[in-house]
Amino acid sequence: DAKTTQPNSMESNEEEPVHLPCNHSTISGTDYIHWYRQLPSQGPEYVIHGLTSNVNNRMASLAIAEDRKSSTLILHRATLRDAAVYYCILRDASSGNTGKLIFGQGTTLQVKP
Amino acid sequence: NAGVTQTPKFQVLKTGQSMTLQCAQDMNHEYMSWYRQDPGMGLRLIHYSVGAGITDQGEVPNGYNVSRSTTEDFPLRLLSAAPSQTSVYFCASSPASSGNRYTFGSGTRLTVV
Questions:
Q1: Measured between CB atoms, does A106 come within 8 Å of chain B?
Q2: If phi over 0 gives left and psi between -120 and 50 gives alpha, with beta otherwise, what is residue A23?
Q3: In angstroms, rounded to a whole number, what is the distance separating the alpha carbons of residues B75 and B49?
Q4: From B75's CA, which of A7, A80, A87, B110 has a CA 20 to 30 Å away?
Q5: 3-state class of B92 per DSSP?
């Protein structure tokens, strides 16, 4: 499984944008880039995913580098509720893939009022 | 639509006891997985399944058994509980395509004394 590298922690001020980086230099052509987050004392929840193009949904935006070796999760206006651990995960879509989702250590985001 | 349901939410076991953590999903998802999360750590994959009758080992399978007799259910069995298995356990399910998201249950907090 290809690995991802994320900063251990980041801080943000409330109502400001947050850019969470992820490096995945060994990504293969069939790997989807998934982002999940885990709020305190809860199970992980899906945030967004993409393959090659930038993606937007109601929660966040995902910007994928042209060479796909890095990506950035963008929270447009951070709220206190966005304080969580954010995980960047590669999920293999090649034929015969097992659908495994392997978590790394993630980035702990602190949002200050 | 209940999503992924885990029972029980809390459990205390004595060393050497056995028990089964239950996981059920009502979304007709092919893929199901079990994770454990130790305090302050990320999630580690225990076992996963790509469909009824098919299971495989994840990152930390020792001490745990699984079976998948139906699409809906994926129980996790601890044959002889040890204090090292004290953790929060999460079950998750996903449609088969890697372009789809995993949905997580709310977790079972297990303490082995």
A1: yes
A2: beta
A3: 11
A4: A87
A5: strand
- Pick among A103, A105, A107, A108 to test the B interface (most B CBs inside 10 A): A103
What average pLDDT does this structure show over B57-84? 96
Taking CB atoms and an 8 Å cutoff, what residues of chain B touch A93? 97-99
Token digits of residue B34: 């079990």
Residue A2: predicted pLDDT? 64
- Residue with more model confidence, B35 or A29: B35
Task: Tell me the pLDDT tens digit for each residue of A49-94.
Answer: 999 999 999 999 999 999 999 999 999 999 999 999 999 998 876 6
DSSP string, A29-84: TTEEEEEEEE-TTS--EEEEEESSS-EE-SS-EEEE-TTSSEEEEEESS--GGG-E
d(CA A37, CA A54): 19
Residue A1: Cβ within 10 Å count: 15
pLDDT of residue B11: 97
Contacts of B54 in chain A (CB under 8 A): none
Query: DSSP string spanning B31-49?
Result: EEEEEEE-TTS-EEEEEEE
- Residue A50: Cβ within 10 Å count: 19
Cis status of the peptide bond prior to B8, with omega within 30 of 0: yes
